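Input structure tokens:
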């Protein structure tokens, strides 16, 4: 009887291995195929909430590192920070504006740092969505998250967000968003006068 159990187990093991071996080429070809497969509906790969960012060189964007520098790359959805003495380089995933019309590119600087900022909709936001509240005080419902770096451009900020689904996406009305833990770190590193570029 023990021999029968052993034979049955061996048969099942071999049968499973054979089935896996037969299925493997199909699985591999399905995984490696980028285009349509005859007889199948083509489903292109959908990329969501990911940043394809890479490190940058500050010299490609700034003449110097006086007061440090922040680069916001709206294409790769990443924020880069360099300290004035070049001892610190940070790279953070970010949210970026929803559309090109909402995106402002160029040079600016940090003009104010606020912990627990209040949020007020801009005139263009109120025009698009008249029912917005006049102000949202600090807390979990605040769109600016836990910290905000105000820029010299009116209404533009680098700020945190409580809605972590927004990071890595086109999801803002013009601002650059970071995870709350990461904006808290950048907030400590940056200072009023830190130069900023949006590309």
């Amino acid at each position: 009887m023990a021999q029968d159990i052993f034979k049955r187990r061996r048969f099942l093991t071999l049968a499973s291995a054979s089935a896996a071996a037969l299925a493997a080429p199909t699985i591999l070809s399905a995984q490696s195929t980028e285009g349509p497969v005859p007889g199948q509906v083509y489903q292109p790969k959908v990329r969501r909430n990911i940043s394809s960012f890479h490190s940058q060189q500050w010299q490609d964007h700034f003449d110097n590192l006086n007061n440090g520098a922040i680069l916001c790359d709206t294409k790769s959805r990443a924020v880069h920070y360099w300290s004035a003495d070049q001892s610190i380089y940070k790279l953070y995933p970010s949210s970026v504006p929803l559309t090109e019309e909402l995106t402002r590119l160029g040079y600016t600087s940090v003009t104010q740092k606020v912990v627990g900022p209040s949020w007020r909709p801009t005139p263009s936001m109120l025009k698009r969505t008249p029912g917005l509240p006049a102000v949202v005080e600090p807390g979990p419902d605040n769109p600016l998250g836990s910290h905000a770096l105000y820029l010299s451009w009116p209404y533009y900020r680098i700020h945190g967000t409580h809605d972590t689904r927004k990071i890595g996406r086109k999801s803002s009305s013009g601002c650059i968003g970071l995870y709350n833990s990461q904006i808290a770190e950048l907030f400590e590193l940056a200072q009023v006068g830190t130069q900023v570029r949006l590309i």
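Helices lie at 2-32, 123-128, 180-189. The chain has a mean pLDDT of 82.
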